[in-house]
Design goal:
By secondary structure, the protein is α/β, with parallel strands linked by helices. The protein has two domains: 103 residues, Nitrogenase molybdenum iron protein domain (Rossmann fold); 105 residues, 3-Layer(aba) Sandwich (Rossmann fold). The chain starts with a strand and ends with a helix.
């Protein structure tokens, strides 16, 4: 059998992969939701959903640095990675151990394609199709819910000291569009550029993510006092975790509005 990843690389397998290492939290969550918990042999320290999973599986490192010898010892027959989260150097080294299936996700559509690809690869087609349908239904319902709402100029911050924001060409940027939030960050130099206070003053609202920088109420109050614009704390998992997390994301967005 063969499977084409989202970098359009074709991987060949003699059988359905049964020993999986997952290097991205949202992808780990998806694999569990597709009924593949028992096939997971290695995950990252950031794979926090389901909560008990890190006690059951071998933790192989983070998303940027992994212990190659530990991964090799697990004898995986597939490693699931992501172009943005995992480095090229990591993927190159990991390919010496097992095929590395790389996702590349910028939009909700890319995420739905990834779900179906995992369903096809692991013979979980029906579960994947059901999940895609549930997300599509929630998405349609959300669009009806916000129909007619005014566009809100928004900046979405992911880091402090220096402040860094999500740009247009990101999965976060696509979910901002889903929410009718006009992303004021238009810097063409990077997907997550540094931003100054003068730029942030152009926004009607600023969203402070819970990850990767864990913004707190103190940060929110401080920035709101500095800028005189609305600043909100938001759950970063709903804005940046693709896969099965999208099933709950649209209900969260309703509450946010």
């Amino acid at each position: 059998m063969e499977s084409k990843d989202q970098l359009r690389r074709i991987h060949h397998f003699d059988k359905i992969p049964s020993r999986i290492v997952s290097l991205v939290p949202s992808q780990t969550e998806l694999l569990v939701d597709l009924g593949l918990r028992e096939r997971l042999v290695g995950i990252t320290k950031f794979c926090v959903h389901p909560q008990e999973l890190r006690k059951q599986k071998v933790v192989v490192g983070g998303t940027k640095q992994v212990k190659f010898e530990k991964i090799a010892s697990l004898q995986p027959d597939i490693i699931i990675a992501n172009k943005e989260e995992n480095t090229l150097e990591m993927v190159t080294e990991l390919q010496r151990i097992a095929p590395v299936w790389v996702s590349d996700i910028y939009t909700v559509g890319d995420s739905l394609d990834f779900i179906l690809a995992m369903g096809a690869l692991f013979r979980r087609d029906e579960l994947a199709a059901d999940l895609k349908k549930a997300i599509a239904t929630a998405r349609t319902d959300f669009k009806k819910h916000i129909q007619g709402k005014a566009v809100i100029k928004t900046a979405y911050l992911i880091w402090k000291l220096p402040y860094m924001a999500a740009g247009h060409n990101t999965f976060i940027g696509d979910l901002l569009r889903e929410n009718v939030f006009e992303n004021i960050i238009t810097d063409p130099k990077g997907r997550y550029p540094e931003v100054d206070l003068k730029t942030l003053q152009q926004a009607d609202q600023i969203l402070l993510s819970s990850e990767p920088y864990p913004f707190k109420e103190k940060d929110r109050a401080e920035l709101e006092a500095q800028l005189g614009v609305t600043v909100k704390l938001v759950d970063g998992e709903y804005f940046s975790w693709y896969g099965s997390r999208l099933r709950q994301a649209y209900e969260y967005f309703k509450r946010l509005h």
